[in-house]
Amino acid sequence: MSKVVKFGGSSLASAEQFKKVGDIIRADKSRQYVVPSAPGKRFQEDTKVTDMLYACYEQAENGKEYKKALAAITARYQEIIDGLNLSLSLNDEFKTIEKKFKEKAGKDYAASRGEYLNGIIMAAYLGYEFIDAAAVIFFNEEGNFDADKTDEVLSERLSSCGKAVIPGFYGAMPDGTVKTFSRGGSDVTGSIVAKAAMVDVYENWTDVSGFLIADPRIIQNPEGIDVITYRELRELSYMGATVLHEDAIFPVRQKGIPINIRNTNAPDDSGTWIVGSTCQKSKYVITGIAGKRGFCSVNIEKDMMNAEIGFGRKVLHAFEENGISFEHVPSGIDTMTVFVHQDEFIHKEQKVVAGLHRLAQPDAIEIESDLALIAVVGRGMKSTRGTAGRIFSALAHANVNVKMIDQGSSELNIIIGVADEDFETAIKAIYDIFVITRI
Fold first, then answer.
1. CA-based nearest residue to 72, from 85, 62, 59
2. Cα(109)–Cα(177) distance, integer angstroms
3. How many CB atoms lie within 10 A of CB 264?
4. For residue range 356-404, what is the model confidence (pLDDT) as tens digits?
5. Could you read off the pLDDT of 251-260 as tens digits, one per residue?
């Protein structure tokens, strides 16, 4: 048995948290490879080190005094080093950082130093080998992740060391310039390392005990999810569930490596298992509910639309030529509705409308704003009759008007569109019908 363990920023925010992480790693000899994030918040009003680095670099880039800000970052790390009683100095590292900031090495370089420095401390604390992610994780000339080169180099590198720390969040461009993933990208690094090392499990440690059926900010004490499939997680992550970076799924999914979401502050909790497929039935018909606000719908009407070859292509081209992606496209015989992100659409709406008239020549166009989309996801829906009916019944009982409903052919999820003002009411109604009053 071998494992990759990734720890989030809240798990590594202080020396006290570092000690918890050290105990977790040492408790299981199979935890061979460690992927740390940058230190997160120590308390509610605190600032994440990554944000401190962004702010510090911005001052340097604009020619402003930044040494005071860099000293505050240095103090954050020194506090951890002192708390762990390590005989470790990061002075040379901070001299290099100061020099690179003067040379305007870029925001990606600045942000990546949070994970880089935490990785050095973690390796010293555990007695593990330190591997700079810039030496083993690569992006191509276009700035896209180079999976093949990374897998080849990283696999060879890991095969020569039994235990190692690889910082999350960043890699290198072909010219050696540091390039970061999007925020939360340490999750992706953990998945990449798990794939390259061909481990048995990828443990992702954070400050919650796995995924919950619904957002705890909307549902009080929602039930947890024991097992979820990659496909279910993909749907929920896309619609706003944020425990795990959605791109972290793909590398391990290719190799059938399960992910286990665990809680650093409650290490005995089993957390949530994310798997390729399973015969285990979910506790409820649904696995989870997630949603996003801030959508609008563009409804296009045209008589005999269904008989006009290429009509859908013409409609979508009007959005494409304005750089707008669509979310869902439900349609009828004479109507077609395109759901888009309102903040992307609002500044280009008249250009899109003009394009629709020019390309598709519709009879009428109607735009509705301030909508929300809710995804009801669950592998159990496929074998359960009446799921959509129960959703409609629950929403009708809660006086929520359904603007749109779209079910994929896989029967894995149902997407519901509602007015933004009904968003939380709708989620509560759906949760109640499937979880609270479960048959």
1. 59
2. 8
3. 19
4. 999 999 999 999 999 999 999 999 888 788 888 899 999 999 999 999 8
5. 998 899 999 9
DSSP 323: T
The sheet that has 129-130: what strands, in order across it?
129-130, 164-165, 31-36, 3-7, 201-206, 259-263, 272-275, 227-229
Task: Give the whole-number percent of the chain exceeding pLDDT 90.
Answer: 81
Tokens 């009982």 -> residue: 397
pLDDT tens digit sequence for 305-332: 988 999 999 999 999 999 999 998 988 8
pLDDT value of position 439: 45
Q: Which residues, other chains included, contact 184 with Cβ-Cβ below 8 Å and sequence gap of 6+?
A: 242, 245
Q: Where are the beta strands (DSSP E) in 119-209?
A: 129-130, 164-165, 170-172, 178-180, 201-206
- Find out whether 31 and 88 touch, Cβ atoms under 8 Å: no
Pair of tokens at residue 38 = 């940058």
In the block, tokens 């989309």 appear at 373
User: Chain centroid to CA 47: how far?
Assistant: 20
Pair 170, 102: CB distance under 8 Å: no
pLDDT digits (tens, 9 = 90+) for 194-219: 999 999 999 999 988 899 999 999 99
Strand-strand pairing, 227-229 and 413-419? unpaired
Query: Where do we find the tokens 């481990």?
Result: 199
Are 261 and 269 a contacting pair, CB within 8 Å?
no
- The predicted model scores a pTM of 0.86
Measured CA to CA, the distance from residue 27 to residue 25 in angstroms comes to: 5
Q: How many other C-beta atoms lie within 10 A of the C-beta of residue 391?
A: 23
Pairing of β 164-165 and β 31-36: parallel
pLDDT of 411: 75
User: What is the predicted pLDDT for the residue at 410?
Assistant: 67
**Cα 185 from Cα 187, distance rounded (Å):** 5
